[in-house]
Specification:
The structure is a homotetramer of 205-residue chains. Chain A has one domain (58-202): Orthogonal Bundle (Tetracycline Repressor, domain 2). Chain A has helices spanning 5-30, 37-43, 48-55, 58-78, 87-103, 108-121, 136-150, 159-184, 190-194. Chain A contains 9 helices and no strands. With 205 residues, the first copy, chain A, is mainly α. In chain A, helix 7 packs across helix 8 (159-184). Chains in contact: A-B, C-D. Chain A binds chain B through residues 29-34, 121-122, 124-125, 155, 157-158, 160-162, 164-165, 167-169, 171-173, 175-176, 179-180, 186, 188-189, 192-193, 195-197, 200-205, and chain B through 29-34, 121-122, 124-125, 155, 157-158, 160-162, 164-165, 167-169, 171-173, 175-176, 179-180, 186, 188-189, 192-193, 195-197, 200-203. Chain B binds a DNA duplex (21 and 21 nucleotides) through helix 1 and helix 3.
Amino acid sequence: MPKTKEQNEQLKKERIDSIYRAALYLFATRGFNGVTSDDITNAAKCSHGLLYHYFGSKEELFQHLINDIVLKLDEEITKDVDFTQRPKFLIRDLLNAYLGALKQPRDDYACAIYLLLNLYIQSRFTPKVKKTFKFRIFENIYCTIEEGKKVGEFSDYPTRELTILLLSVLKGLSYNRINLGHKNCIIPRSEIIMKMILKEEGRNA
Amino acid sequence: MPKTKEQNEQLKKERIDSIYRAALYLFATRGFNGVTSDDITNAAKCSHGLLYHYFGSKEELFQHLINDIVLKLDEEITKDVDFTQRPKFLIRDLLNAYLGALKQPRDDYACAIYLLLNLYIQSRFTPKVKKTFKFRIFENIYCTIEEGKKVGEFSDYPTRELTILLLSVLKGLSYNRINLGHKNCIIPRSEIIMKMILKEEGRNA
Amino acid sequence: MPKTKEQNEQLKKERIDSIYRAALYLFATRGFNGVTSDDITNAAKCSHGLLYHYFGSKEELFQHLINDIVLKLDEEITKDVDFTQRPKFLIRDLLNAYLGALKQPRDDYACAIYLLLNLYIQSRFTPKVKKTFKFRIFENIYCTIEEGKKVGEFSDYPTRELTILLLSVLKGLSYNRINLGHKNCIIPRSEIIMKMILKEEGRNA
Amino acid sequence: MPKTKEQNEQLKKERIDSIYRAALYLFATRGFNGVTSDDITNAAKCSHGLLYHYFGSKEELFQHLINDIVLKLDEEITKDVDFTQRPKFLIRDLLNAYLGALKQPRDDYACAIYLLLNLYIQSRFTPKVKKTFKFRIFENIYCTIEEGKKVGEFSDYPTRELTILLLSVLKGLSYNRINLGHKNCIIPRSEIIMKMILKEEGRNA
DNA sequence: GATGAATGAGGTTTCATTCAT
DNA sequence: GATGAATGAAACCTCATTCAT
């Protein structure tokens, strides 16, 4: 009955993790208001009180979820991208990283991407995430496009315009990925998307 | 007799309209679950009893909103598009129609587009819309791309893939438009988006 | 357009009557709390406001219903009974009058009897009927049994006990009559019921 | 661990029981529509949330009440009746069982009998009781009268007619018992009621 | 730590009643 | 007189949160 300290730590970690997993999927699919704390604890197969024991409130759970899980996943997705290469390859690789994450059978990448892109704009009616955190996804793309334009790789449309287009596509695709599932969801190749921002070479139109 | 019949009809219509207007904006910005029925009636400056008098429930209000308002607005947006022209011009004009709607100061077009594109996929956790209705927005684009591919105007990627890309962009943009407002929202030109689906001419790649 | 005074009076009378008819049936079948004012006006095919125009409130409608309709029907049912005859024949005739009323295709007699017998006891949770009125049905039977016992026609059980038995049977039967309808409801002969109160003659037990 | 498991079970049982007790009395005296959920929880001295925690809705509470309590009480009332004896003694004993239950100071027997007899017929406007259950009270009496007629103990009126008479009397008496209380209510002896159905011996007519 | 019974603020819905015409 | 749009008190119900053990 009395477990070792390590066993206890392990158990605790697993429980917290299963709450996170359940919350990530539910918040992404139904939105913060569409999920009850019972939905989460049922999915996580833990008692009602535990969520409050560990997280204090549903809102705090959401905030921890963003800071502890979603941002980690985002880093994980982009960890192999070489940020030192030329802008057009960097953007392509970033896109490939996100699209690759969406293609995987596991749902958490898609959920994380979707929640993150939601947060970027729609913060008014989602619980405030108190701790500051870097919106890597937006900054990365915005800065890279800026640079790419300087070196003549990208078209001359406003950077913000181009960034929003890319993020919209990503958000739309992650949304579809979450709601259609791994099997039914088609994830396009990055080349199609790249066309929107690349400067057209040797064309007449 | 109660007032004149016409006056009564007129009054009733106005009240219903103001409920619809409030509901359209609120549902689009906060999601079905993020809106209380009092939010709506407060915004519409009527008693909450009236909402139930006319619509029966919050859910039925949502359904009526889609059928009576959102689909009308969608038709209105695309009413001047010439559906007989060549696919690549048709898609361009459709895109321009939607982007043009998003550019206008009025919010209802953006709200309608956003709700409609949400419905197309995420029907699981949104109240079911009982009456069947045509998803003009999806069908139009899907069929047109099919034809365009036959006449060699569009790239050879799967039609579904291309359609989803276009709709994702539209959804992302309408989402931004709603949440950033008319002034702060940049709506890109259709040409950039068209690049994703057009067959590249005179290129070797 | 301008009707004559008589026509107007006539119309008014008919409308009030149709409200009464609807209310009588609905109150009897569903109870005061199970009926909405809309149920009544829908059944009476009149506007919502009219009920309040004529009766002031649902509760007042109920009270008027008892005083103006139910007591009238009770009198009508028992109007041919000869109250001067010997108790055992009087009780028999009264029973036959009520049972005869229940046998008729029209529902209003059964509804009236049921409401009346309900009122007799369960006044705590039914709106108070303000105007005093005679509970003919109870008094008639009680007094007659008293007399009958004096002349040795009825058994020696307490009068109250015997009265309650008779009324219980009547109430149960009118309840069945209302809920099963004219066709499906069997109304027993008065003789069976009379056995409960008649003194047994020439028997050894 | 939360309290001891047994304590918890016990506490839960008591709360549920006190809700049942309150509901049984209130539904019987005022009818389903005359009782609010707060009436019940006030009487049971618990929060209204608890009612919904355990029963889901007022309607489900009603259904559980019938299945878990009312039918149990009915069995309890008739548990000592010898169902193997001759019909006329069986009916007498059944009657005595019910009348005996009505005579007791506790109200729950009367409430249970009343609700049960109500259900037998008036199912239209009472919430539907989904689980099927045996109407012991009706079946017992109907079948026994049938048999009794075969062996010549009961009068030759239709069985259904006789059954309804008996049940009407029981319903009327339980109704009175509930509304007048233990002290003020006279419960007649079964002999009087038996007279309605017994074949008259040694008489001419 | 962990549980789940219990609470009550607040959301959803109903419906008796009012009132301008 | 008659209508029916409109109101809001009060019912029903949900769910985030607390707490004793």
